[in-house]
Structures are given as structure tokens and as C-alpha cells.
Amino acid sequence: MAGVYETIIDIERAAARHWRGSEEESLGGWLLRAAEGFTGRANSALPLGDPGLPLDRALDAVTGWYRDRGLPPMIAVPTPLNADADSPGHELDRSLSERSWATRPGPAFVMVADLSADANPLRDHATRELPPGAAFRVDAEPDPAWLARYHYRGQDRQPAVLRDVLTSAPVQVFASIRADGDVLAIARLSIADGWAGITAVEVDPARRRAGLGSALTGAVCAEAANRGVSRVFLQVETSNAAALALYQRCGFRYSHRYHYRVAPAR
């Protein structure tokens, strides 16, 4: 299990470079991230190793750091898929539970795919035919039409820090499928530490179940492969059965899962 967990931490360390807080600080082997409360990933501590302090002192430091910024103290806890497995992630989770850190709703799976595999379903999806008049495109910046299609967790609110987070990776492009001036589907492709990451995926509700999700996923992965990247990851809430099924059809496999623990109120 040690080797499995080391692989999980390697993926989490890479993923942290793809979706960053506007403010970050290290606490030993833990990464503290803040971005004015926009997204859990950018506003949580990520345990990537030893915090360099006894756990209670480390939790005090995390709690103080987030409360100084007016944010709820929160820790992302990555764990193996096997809930019964013994791992540092499960050990930390048990310790947080014993200290009354509550589990935030919305656990997620991390899924990965190999873009260089010869027998790769993503190749088929990359060439999937788009609706008449539609075209796939990538842009270096998210234009107003792309941003208008993006609704984080279904919200219309777009905080000022949103653009900072969306452009926080070393490299990112903003993919879309468009037809007659309408944005039918979007995704963000980021590249860092030898990985491609797919985030901010959204399809026009009126166009769902028409193959756009598969076509977009394949086209984004082809774009990553063309840029010399052979590995890709994405994160999906465990309750999103439709997305999980889509990504499995596209050739993604489950790596691990994560959830958030939130500090008890004072």
C-alpha cells in the first residue's frame, strides 16, 4: 500500500500545479492554498508529506492561516480507492474525524489515462464527428463567450479571482466546441509536471446526450498529445454517474479519491 499511496501523492503534487490558489505557503510537506474561497482545491491544505510539526500543532497552524484570511480551515484528504486499506491518507482522515473535523459533501474521484497507449479509446473520440457547422478550437485566454458558458458548481457568480485561478498553471488553453457563434461545450486543458489536466468541463444543457462530451474529451486529449504530454488526469464528483461513465468509455481509469475535512467552529 505504501507504493500505491506514494503514486497518489505524486499525482496530487502534480495536480496542485494545475489549479492553484492565488496565495500559497508551505507547512513542511503540506501545501496551504487560498483564493478568496473560490473552489475547494484552491482553498484547502493539501498534505503531501510530513508537516514538520506534531499533528495538533500542524492543525492549529492550518486553522490560524485560513481564519486569518476569513476562510474556513479545510484539508483535502486523498485516499486509495479501497476504503479498508491502511494508508497515511486514511490514518489522517481518522485523526481528523477524532478531532471533530467534519466531512464536506462532494467527494471526488481522480481518473487518469495514458495518451500514448496504442489501443486507446481516446483516439476514436478525438475523431468523433461534431454536429453540422460545429468546430473545435483552443484559445490562450478565456474569452467572454467561454466564461459565459462556465458555471462552477452551477453558480452564475464569477468572482474577480476566477481568472487568476483559471490561468494559474504554467501552461493552459481554453477549449470549446462552437457553432454559429454559440458555445456548445468548454473545457480547460492545463499542462504541468509532465501531466495534462482537464478541468472546467461544461456542456450546454440543451445539447447534452448528443456526444459533445465525448468529442470534447477526445479533442482535448489529442491537443495534449500534440503538445508532447502522455498522461492526463481529471477529477469528478463520485455522485456524477453520467460523467464517470463517459470518462470510462473514453479510456480513463480510477486512480484514487479525495474529500475535504473542515475544522470545527470555534
Helix proportion range: 25-40%
The proportion of residues in beta strands is 25-35%
The coarse silhouette is globular
Helix-strand makeup class = alpha+beta
Q: What can be said about the biggest beta sheet?
A: 9 strands, mixed
Gyration radius from CA atoms, angstroms = 19 Å
Number of helices: 8
Write a structural description.
The chain has 266 residues and is an alpha+beta fold. The chain contains eight helices and twelve strands. The strands form two sheets. Strands 4, 5, 6, 7, 8, 9, 10, 11 and 12 form a nine-stranded mixed β-sheet that branches. A three-stranded antiparallel β-sheet has the order 1-2-3, covered by helices on one side. Helix 7 links the parallel strand 10 and strand 11. The longest helix has 15 residues. It starts with a helix and ends with a strand. The mean pLDDT is 93.
Write a concise synopsis of the structure shown.
With 266 residues, the protein is an alpha+beta fold. 30% of the residues lie in helices and 30% in strands.
Comma- or semicolon-separated keywords:
alpha+beta, single chain, globular, 30% helix, 8 helices, nine-stranded mixed sheet, three-stranded antiparallel sheet, 266 residues, 30% strand, 12 strands
Helix-strand layout with pairing:
Layout lengths: L1 H14 L7 E5 L2 E5 L11 E2 L7 H14 L5 E6 L8 H11 L3 E2 L4 E7 L6 H6 L7 E6 L4 H6 L12 H5 L4 E9 L2 E11 L2 E9 L8 H15 L4 E7 L3 H9 L3 E10 L4
Parallel strand pairs: 10-11
Antiparallel strand pairs: 1-2, 2-3, 4-12, 5-12, 6-11, 6-12, 7-8, 8-9, 9-10
